[in-house]
UniProtKB/TrEMBL annotation:
It comes from the Bacteria. Gene3D superfamilies: Ribosomal protein L33. The lineage of its organism: Bacteria, Pseudomonadati, Pseudomonadota, Alphaproteobacteria, Holosporales. This is Large ribosomal subunit protein bL33. One of its GO terms (molecular function) is structural constituent of ribosome. Belongs to the bacterial ribosomal protein bL33 family.
């Protein structure tokens, strides 16, 4: 059986609203930070990578 090359991660809003996106990433060392739209504050904010529990 082949090993998975992508991991599912959860991107959580830094605005503290609890909004999150689930996305796939390749195997890498550094944490991902993206600027995405947060519906609750109606602005683009930074989302940080966290593990899915």
């Amino acid at each position: 059986m082949a090993k998975k090359k992508t991991n599912l991660i959860r991107m959580i809003s830094e605005a503290g609203t609890g909004t999150f996106y689930v996305t796939k990433t390749g195997s890498k060392k550094e944490k991902l930070k993206l600027k995405k739209y947060d519906k609750k504050v109606r602005k683009h904010v930074v989302f940080k990578e966290h593990k899915i529990k």
